[in-house]
Amino acid sequence: MMAQITGRVTIKEIAQACGVGVTTVSRALNDAPDVNAHTRKRVLKMARTMGYAPNLHARKLRQTTSDSVALVVKGPSNPFFLEMLDVFEAKIRERGMHVTMLRVPHGEDEVQAALQHTATAHPAAVVFLGGQLDGSRKQFEALGAPFVLCTIPHNEALKPDSYSSVALDDQLALTQIVEYLADLGHEEIGFIGSDTADNSVGELRSHYFRAAMRKRFGSNTTPAVLRGPVQDTPYSYHYGLQLGYEMLSKHPQVTAIVGMTDVIALGVMRAVLDMGLRVPEAVSVVGIDGVEIAAYSHPRLTTIRQPLHDLVERTCEALFAAMRGEAARHLLLPGELVVRSSTGPVRNTIFAEQPVWRSRA
């Protein structure tokens, strides 16, 4: 099997690999009607295998422009992302363009998927919704189109002025959660993150949770933090259920558990109940996202609600600004603490009146 090439691949190299002429490859990549169907299929397959992406400067010379925006969704079963998709499509259509969606499973490389798509579809711009984004600077430059990271705060491999990003202020969100639970008397607070392969939002939220705990309870605080082994579906109810069992078995002292997403938190809540405990009397549970189902669980889930519409609107604004050649922008948006019935005072602690905690968002 041919090794995947991560640098700039030329049409000439694809032609040599396929045993056809450069003109044939060029016409196949541009979907010219006079190319044999079998040859076109072989050329496109080879281009994908080699990681081909068109030259940025050559693209600028084209006489026609695309009216599509590629939306690359990492982890397409994530309920929060599913709620965002219709909003994205509506906002982009308002600007006279349409959306082409790429659904990338958790274990696959979303940057490589985007490169393969832009090589043949030539979208005007790209939005990455979620993901690890381990791609190199050369890979992103090879996209040949402006792009925005949505729900991902930054990518250290890239120059800040080469892309835009819009995300939840995770540091503020985790501080809000820890302060709220601490005001209820909780000190033994656990955190369940995504799998250990997640070096993006999963890593950040784990870091900010630890920082918030140290700030509230002292620098020597070592809270219980669990992240599961690498797997295909770390943002799932089942993942939260399994890690919930593990948390309660290894750290029975916890009186509150924070799931890094609502889906994980709902799985944790099921684990608490399965082990014969009550929520929130024995263990309080908190999530992050504000997905619709969190308002209908029993008990209803306390969560940090992400500003879904603002996230989409700001992402689209940044995207179309980039298409106009304007400066990059990096935005962190505050979430809202929504207190519901999955949280309460720590067990064995009696409050004459439950503390009132107001969001700083």
Structural Rg: 23 Å
How much beta, percentage-wise?
15-25%
Give, in spatial order, the strands making up the sheet with the most strands.
2-1-3-4-5-11
Task: Please write the string of helix (H) and strand (E) elements.
Answer: HHHHEHEHEHEEHEHEHEHEEHEE
In brief:
The chain is α/β, with parallel strands linked by helices. The protein has twelve helices and twelve strands. The protein is elongated and about 80 Å long.
Highlighted features:
about 350 residues; alpha/beta; six-stranded mixed sheet; 12 helices; disordered N terminus; DNA-binding; DNA binding
Description:
This protein is of the alpha/beta class. It contains twelve helices and twelve strands. It has helices at residues 11-18, 22-29, 37-50, 56-60, 79-94, 110-121, 137-141, 170-183, 201-217, 237-250, 262-274, 308-323; strands at 68-74, 98-104, 125-129, 147-150, 164-168, 189-193, 225-227, 256-259, 284-289, 302-305, 330-333, 336-338. The strands form two sheets. It has a six-stranded parallel β-sheet with strand order 2-1-3-4-5-11, sandwiched between helices. A six-stranded mixed β-sheet has the order 7-6-8-9-10-12, sandwiched between helices. Helix 5 (79-94) packs across helix 12. The longest helix has 17 residues, at 201-217. It starts with 10 loop residues before the first helix and ends in a 23-residue tail after the last strand.
